Amino acid sequence: MFQFTQPQTPLRDAITGAYRLDEVTAVSNLLATLNFDNAQKEQINALARRLITQVRADRSKSSGVDALMQEFSLSSEEGVALMCLAESLLRIPDTATRDRLIQDKLSDGDWKSHVGNSPSMFVNAAAWGLVLTGKLTQPTTGGLGSALTRVLQKGGAPFIRAGVNHAMKILGKQFVTGQTIEEALSNGKEREKLGYRFSFDMLGEAAMTAEDADRYYQDYVTAIHAIGKDAKGRGVYDGNGISVKLSAIHPRYFRAQHERVMTELLPRLKALFVLAKEYDIGLNIDAEEANRLELSLDLMEKLVSDPDLQGFNGIGFVVQAYQKRCPYVIDFLIDLARRNNQRLMIRLVKGAYWDSEIKWAQVDGLDGYPVYTRKVHTDVSYLACAQKLLAAQDAIFPQFATHNAQSLATIYEMGKDKDFEFQCLHGMGETLYDQVVGEKNLGRRVRIYAPVGTHKTLLAYLVRRLLENGANSSFVNRIVDEDVSIDELIESPIDIVNATGISPNPLTPPPRRIYGERDNSFGLDLSNEHVLAKLQDNMQAACDIAFEVSSLTAGTVAHQPAHAVLNPADHRDVVGQVSFIDANSIRDVISVSLNAQHAWRTVSPAQRAAMLRRFADLMEEPARMSLLMMVAVREAGKTLLNAIAEVREAIDFCRYYADETERLNLSNPVGTVVAISPWNFPLAIFVGEVVSALAAGNTVVAKPAEQTSLIAHLAVSWLHESGVPTDVLQLVLGAGDVGAALTSDERIDGVIFTGSTDVAKRINKLLAARTDNPVLIAETGGMNAMIVDSTALPEQVCTDVLASAFDSAGQRCSALRILCVQEDIADHMVEMIKGAMDELVVNNPAALSTDVGPVIDAEAQENLLNHINNLKQIAPYHEVAIRSDAPNSTFVAPIMFELKDLSQLKKEVFGPVLHVVRFAAHELDDLIDNINKKGYALTHGIHSRIDSTIEHITDRIEAGNVYINRNIVGAVVGVQPFGGHAMSGTGPKAGGPFYLQRLSNLQQWDTPAVDQAALIHESNLAKVRAVAAKLSLSSEEQSLVETAADNAIRSSLNHASTELAGPTGETNTLSWHAPKAVTIYGGDKAQTLAALAALAVNGTKAYVNPAHALADHADALDGILVVAEQPAADVNDIVVALSAMPASEQVRLAELDGSIRRVIDATNGLDVTRLYHEVSQSYNTTAAGGNASLMASA
Question: What's the predicted TM-score (pTM) here?
Fold first, then answer.
């Protein structure tokens, strides 16, 4: 069933084995190969010193980019603002949004301080080309911000826009040789006369659609013809060449799509090489992300051995020295060339995706990084790899791409009697290489890597260059920094490492240690052949298990006859047999749980935590993780990537809640908790519910969804194995009748439920009929939206939309249902999404190539198809083909509808269905209001480069989790605590600081430390105090009010926030918002004033009925107390009960339409902490092109 490995030779095995090699081992191995005598060292130092001295002398005559990056380094606010501006300005079609972006990025920086600092005319043209006739460079009392505002107020927006646009284009010209290949060839002639040659790069990368790939491919064909004709037979080494990005000419250039790459991309690539051979020009395959490297080697193997390319010396390949695999890749390429009697061009670069590689490894919980964490280690690797290349002159023509004078001098010394060339980037390093090129200098050929394309297409490339060279550790930055001595610059990386020792960068902790003491869950790299082989063997072996499961209870219970569990992707595959419990046995099961309470309560928090951590460790064992993944794929229809994420989330819950119970020292459980979990996250949510209740000291009866009993059975049996007693945790398997029997038993003390809003409300009504205040934590659905303005990067939006809407076949409560696109970019955006949808593979998730699996069962399929077929009658749509040929399955094709407006979408649709609406920029507030009116408040996405727009949306939108410039799914435990309010749930957030406290009997909740202090409404509190002073309260009653006020001020979290530890390249914050209004039930004057004091501190209004004791004082409590009849008061989600509320009133509230009403028992005083809406915000700080802070730390 599981078959996803590729055969490997010993040399290829060595490459894979070094994928995430220990950094100390890797650098030690490299150092052992490098040995220079004193004479060589002196020669290297002298040459490097001479080069640097001359660069500094020529600095003011340079192209300006080096000086520019020195002046506006990425450690400055202005440098980051300019990078963001450069990344997005030129693609924005509408002038209103352009103006907002310019104001957003330029109005806060201290631009005046940069004027006149640099000897470069380019930099001083008007502080980064803000050519505003000097207006912004003149001293003003308010600085540049007020000057910019003044010019805008005087109608100068078109003037400023034109100036900034012009500045961006000037910047673009520094990095791009020409907008067309003909222009680039023409522009390069002067440099060719000096001895330079070019390798042209047709800008445009990461094709999202087949149409993109076709267009980029044609650009390469056109360029090869033009370069070839211009070369006039000068040959591979003496003529200009071209570089090709494979991700540009195929939309699915990934290891998971190996078969498509070899059958579709390979013929295209070969055709380009055959054409290049006809003209005898060089063609290099550019290096990209680490997870594509070994796939590109498969392509190289085919190309180099192809008879049609025999004898062609122009086959080129780029290797990255920052990758730990680099030396092993070179060994393979040398062997490949010799086996086929070829000579390959190998370009050695340091690498351009370092920050991304670090982030991906952290996000995925991998066992190390594929790259070095210190730049000096990369420099050592570069020299070791250069030496290896120079030693294989028969098989390799080396091309050394570096802007580092020390690296250049070392390679010049190593290669004195060898054949090779240097390379540099267009717009950078010419002042260095002008001293190298030609016979009058060092007599070495220098090839310029020269991007070709329009200003619009250069954005991703441009920002990567700015990042690389604006980072403080970059040689390009430091070479022009007079504060850095030449002695420091010419120091050999070998000497540096020998002096300081070899150690990974402490600022870049290992991927498993990014949360400090708590381990990040272990992930699997599905681009690693060794990992795939082990996973395949383990999952295949797990398929042989004959599952025959029933409930796990401490007493004897009756069961129904067993039934078969069928794979939703193919009903011919019987996964196992399940026997459901007889619902009449549920009372006995609960009795066991009640009897186990006392003994479990005496188990210390540390002991409970140890059991949870033991269970987490069990799930991480390779064989067990593979078993869980196999069941997730076959029972729940999970893709392999989703199956990994499922297990990892379960592990994270265990470790997070283990830490929490120890931190809070919890030993006051509510009693016996029923945990009812859904089929869409059959392990992660199931485990999260169960272990949270256990961690707090509760006994648990767990009922998983009827469709996913097998994986839940495994989890509970392993929890028992980890030390949880069988009477403390019991598993009951069954359908809705079992859930009803559990929740209607009046002896239970609480319910944790994840599922539909309707069922949550039914449970709430059942519990409301009781007077002992059982706990309900309900996490339900959402009509989740994403708002995309015209500053957003379409390719990024497209990737995030596909992940948010169609991953897990759209069966996530967080999934994207409504995509709102600014009309100025909507046509292009929608067409791109359609094309990208067409590339999705909808098939059996056992295949590595599958992107979208089935929906869970026939009922879900029928509900979805009814919605889809109805909407097809009234809305345009785009639907994906299903590739599965299984005769019986429950697939639903991913589909996108274009709606006229949001009124056409009536309810939550739980599957791979996306609804698109367009909006005009001036309609943003109406759009937000219409989203909020749907009544849900779960997840929301924003794609924008304008900080003020992001802030405006986040302030107005009702959502528990807000995601900025990223997808809106995959919340990570403790990093993005998950959950919503209103119709989306009761709170608290799973994986957040209040969850275990809700499952405990605590008088006052513990509040977390915050980074931003709470907003205290002192004026509101003063009104309450004034009324309290007028009333004839006893001293005891007066003290009650004052104590409540003091406690509320001390513990307030209203608009407070804290930053949570997470992967690099994103900022994750948790903030709290007091509800706008609550309803107060009962209470005398003193009680109510005490509650009002606490609410007033947080800016919350309180509704009371006209008969309430304080109703007559509403005028004095304006803005704090609202007197309203019942219908008006009923709109509030939260009711604060200062007196015992009769069951009949609780049931009435539970039956109201809309949100799940929460009744807060405040008969012994109000703890406002229980009222807050928690808002998790995840901001992808690398969206504008890269991770400036991480780059600066390398």
Answer: 0.94
